[in-house]
Design a protein that fits this description.
Elements lengths: L2 H14 L7 H19 L20 E7 L5 H8 L17 E7 L2 E7 L14 H9 L3 E7 L5 H12 L2 E3 L6 E5 L5 E5 L8 H10 L5 E5 L5 H9 L3 E3 L1 E6 L6 H8 L4 E3 L8 H12 L2 E5 L12 E3 L5 H8 L3 H4 E7 L8 E3 L10 E6 L1
Parallel strand pairs: 1-3, 1-4, 4-10, 5-9, 7-8, 10-11, 12-16
Antiparallel strand pairs: 2-3, 6-8, 12-13, 14-15, 14-16
Helix pairs in contact: 1-2, 2-6, 2-7, 6-7
This protein binds guanosine-5'-triphosphate, potassium ion (K) and magnesium ion.
């Protein structure tokens, strides 16, 4: 039996197994098996066709956004509208066959936007250019899932399933579970909260399925078996995703209103240039970039030229942005803003900066 067949067998068995107390161990085990086979499926195959020709676009700018969607939802039209790059758009499917990068300039940041070929059901298993597209999506900071507002919701759940099956977790946090494999001592299991979805026995069963017999496990949240499996397997990407419903010029006001109220969703029309400003605002929020302003001694901060960094960046990251050798000449920095208790406060290289902080660097 091939891996695909095994996966489909297990999926069928999960579907027909009733979810209750008596079956929870069986289901947990099936899920662990499923995750294992999917991982095998993703191991790079040796055939030439799986090479990412035309997909290896250099990362540039302050952040990367990937456009994922079915064919002809308007991805290329969107790229051509928002950036100075033109990507061919047409009414037939699979107009775009490679990865086309463009740049959105917004609030002083350069956001790399990637137009990609449309993907279809079965993409994760290599249908169309699905694998390459998904590989690019994994490298993004935010995914825009573009949907055709005139088509049903099934598109959205199909795409979610494809991304989910290759370890991309959309709008989810990393499960709060401490997990450390050990050389001996068996499995030590603890939790700081009451667990309603997992138990010590289930955790042990799942670990045995992965041939792990010695480990330390601590649940800090009431996590599900799937979340626990994600932690064991590792290699998961937790990514913000914005659902963008395009072509609202084609649907009723009531329908627009309904879609616009969905969580993590924005409605637009590329054709009529509707709501694009709001989409940019949302995208900016989802990127959660940190803008830092610099200040010279005795002068006012320069608010015209922000240094743009990813969330959680340190003073050291700021130094590297200003000059390659600045960190080695660094004595201390003065920081004004929400990251410090006092304004200004003297901080070292490891201090974590927050959005709109002002920094003055003092050299040795
Ligand atoms: N009515 C309407 N049509 C649109 C809108 N945006 C794009 N289109 C049309 O939809 C068709 C497909 O657009 P593309 O930009 O090529 O779509 P794509 O998602 O890049 O398609 P592939 O590259 O084939 O995956 C084109 O005929 C566009 O003119 C819109 O907001 N409203
Ligand atoms: K198209
Ligand atoms: Mg296209």
């Amino acid at each position: 039996m091939g891996i695909l067949e095994k996966i489909s067998e297990i999926e069928k068995e999960i579907a027909r197994t009733q979810k209750n107390k008596a079956t929870e161990y069986h289901l947990g085990l099936l899920k662990a098996k499923l995750a294992k086979y999917r991982a095998q499926l993703l191991e790079p195959s040796k055939s030439a066709s799986s090479k990412g020709e035309g997909f290896d676009v250099m990362k540039s700018g302050d952040a990367r956004v990937a456009l994922i969607g079915f064919p002809s939802v308007g991805k290329s039209t969107f790229l051509s509208l928002m950036t100075s790059t033109a990507s061919e758009a047409a009414s037939y499917e699979f107009t775009t066959l490679t990865c086309i990068p463009g740049v959105i300039e917004y609030k002083g940041a350069n956001i790399q936007l990637l137009d990609l070929p449309g993907i279809i059901e079965g993409a994760a298993q290599g249908k169309g250019r699905g694998r390459q597209v998904i590989a690019v999506a994994r490298t993004a900071d935010v995914v825009i899932m573009m949907l055709d507002a005139t088509k049903g919701e099934v598109q959205r759940s199909l795409l979610e399933k494809e991304l989910e099956s290759v370890g991309i977790r959309l709008n989810k946090h990393k499960p709060n579970i401490y997990f450390k494999p050990k050389k001996g001592g068996g499995i030590s299991f603890n939790s700081t909260v009451t667990l309603t979805q997992c138990s010590e026995k289930l955790v042990q069963l799942i670990l045995h399925e992965y041939k792990i017999f010695n480990a330390e496990v601590l649940f800090r949240d009431d996590c599900s078996p799937d979340e626990f499996i994600d932690v064991i397997v590792g290699n998961r990407v937790y990514m913000p995703c914005l659902y963008v419903y395009n072509k609202i010029d084609q649907i009723s006001m009531e329908e627009v209103d309904r879609l616009a109220r969905k969580p993590n969703s924005v409605v637009i029309s590329c054709g009529m240039k509707l709501n694009l400003d709001y989409l940019l605002e949302m995208l900016w929020e989802y990127l959660a970039l940190t803008c830092i302003y610099t200040k010279k001694r005795g002068q006012r901060p320069d608010f015209t030229d922000a240094i743009i960094l990813r969330k959680g960046a340190s003073v050291e990251h700021v130094c590297h942005r200003i000059h390659r050798s600045l960190a080695s000449q660094f004595k201390y920095a003065l920081v004004w803003g929400t990251s410090t208790k006092y304004s200004p406060q003297r901080v070292g290289l490891t201090h974590t900066m927050e959005h709109e902080d002002v920094i003055q660097i003092v050299k040795k």
